[in-house]
Task: structure prediction
Amino acid sequence: MSSGKINVAVENIFPLIKKFLYSDHEIFLRELVSNATDATLKLKHLSNIGEANVEYGNPQIEIKVDKDNRTLHVIDQGLGMTAEEVNKYINEVAFSGAEEFINQYKDSAKDSGIIGHFGLGFYSAFMVSEKVEIITKSHKDAPAAHWACDGSPEYTLVEHDKTVRGTEIILHIDSDSDEFLEEARIRELLSKYNKFMPIPIKFGTKEQTHEEGEGDDKKEIKEIVDDIINNPNPAWTKKPSDLKDEDYKSFYRELYPMQFEEPLFHIHLNVDYPFALTGILYFPKLNNDLNIQKDRIQLYQNQVFVTDNVEGIVPEFLTMLRGVIDSPDIPLNVSRSYLQADGAVKKISNYITKKVADKLQAIFKNERENLEQKWNDIKMVIEYGMLSEEKFYEKAKKFNLFPTTDGTFLTLDELKEQTKEAQTDKDGKLVQLYASNADEQHAYIQAAKNKGYTVLLLDSPIVGHLLQKLEQEDDKLGFVRVDADHIDKLIAKDEPQLSKLSDEEKETLKPLIENVVPKEQYTVQLEAMDSEAAPFMITQPEFMRRMKEMQQTGGGGMFGGGFPDMYQLVVNVNHPLVSQILETKTKKKQERLIKQSLDLARLSQSLLKGEELTAFIKRSFDMIK
Ligand code: ADP
Ligand code: MG
Result:
């Protein structure tokens, strides 16, 4: 038929394409399979509206590797192209698209972390090929066309004897792209980018066994069938009402074959105005580990995988979730900083946040027990959301649960109601007590419970930030860890305990203790407490400890640098042992009593370790023998 020169403005577009984003060469396959899918769906549409006089049938896309001839084939049964159309769409349109794309993004692409590189389209084939051929037969009554181009602007376009409708793209793989002649590599790419595309994709064949017959006649039949690598109808494209819980779970396994743990909840996203978006998000079981997991939310565009980096599209706290988001409305050829400023993207992010809050609210209302059971596995996401998204905070405040050391779960309102009688201090402040570890802080929890107080169990690494926020919002509400002070001071009441020791006696006692106790670590504080309360007790002031913890999980630190660990040694002057220390005449014995009491107090705070613990044990054995 003809040969010609592609209308090139930049003479060296092909070398440019070749070099373009070296690390991303693999996307050529996604582009070709997308084109094949588009061509097939267009044919379907035409035949539906009666404009293509063809049998649509059950078209497939086939990928073939011919290692001996160094070719890779992408074959579709779509609408095909006439020679004129090849001229128009390949020589002019596709080319100008590629050229425009390169001009626009050659500088910005490297640093922007562009999501995918849609737009390069057909010509991305030249990133991995020394020559590309198109053999295509249109559904229209016209002879087939054969286009070939070796990477220079010259192409040939001649007639071909292909009689079946559709298009075959043949890539003659370049010597520096051998990897794309490996079946395993192609399979990997197909399952990465095309796993959920809407037209079945065949890649070779596989053996399948099934059973036939009944009872004794039952036998296994082996047969060779097409190996279809994709699921053309993934769950997120279906209506929520057509899906059962089990369908969501099996889709999760399909998405993350290496995940053995079941998801806790799912959220089906489905909106078409003011932007189109579908998807399913899952709450995975998270532990208190802040490290980012590798199974992440996947972003699709019309069932074509784009990326699993959804930063900027999904609010940060939800990047801990898993699942898929599919939207044709997310601009893909732009940098992330642009993405974050994009109005449409902001709307998408807000919508997702709202959906997640609404879903949790509904679970709270309708199946609270279910929420409570899974609370410890999802609380990090919720706390993070409350801290980072004000709109989410407003909603989540009503269903955010506080686990207690008794195994119950209370909302903030319920907690206030339950504790206001017993736990309001002399200044009218409602004080909530919490522990971070029920075993390590057992003695303190017990002391609080004996007073009829409720003790929460808050062990998430970021909860300190949330407590801070709640306190800032309500100055009549405070949170203190049970070991922050001795029990009478945690919630100060108007009924001071009488001291058994006179002021003079206390003045004698204090230096005695300070001489034995390491000063850099402990400040000694004499308190008149219940005579049943422990004689020596170590506490760590709430403020310093919380600031330190907050600093470890980012933000919140009011002082740069590290915090020293500061403890208080609270000495209960009403305890008989303390009177005994004071009355002991021999200096040595007195010191030994103090040392032993200090070590016991440290032991109950898990602060006695190493050499000092060994010495303590030895000393204790000596005492009882
Ligand atoms: P885009 O897909 O964004 O339009 P491409 O560069 O990928 O850009 O493709 C350019 C055009 O070439 C397509 O719009 C289509 O008209 C035509 N084309 C490409 N591949 C095929 C195919 N397999 N079957 C029919 N037409 C195709
Ligand atoms: Mg395309």
User: Anything to note?
Assistant: The first strand starts at residue 2 and ends at 5. DSSP finds 19 helices and 22 strands in the chain. Confidence is low (pLDDT under 50) at residues 109-117.
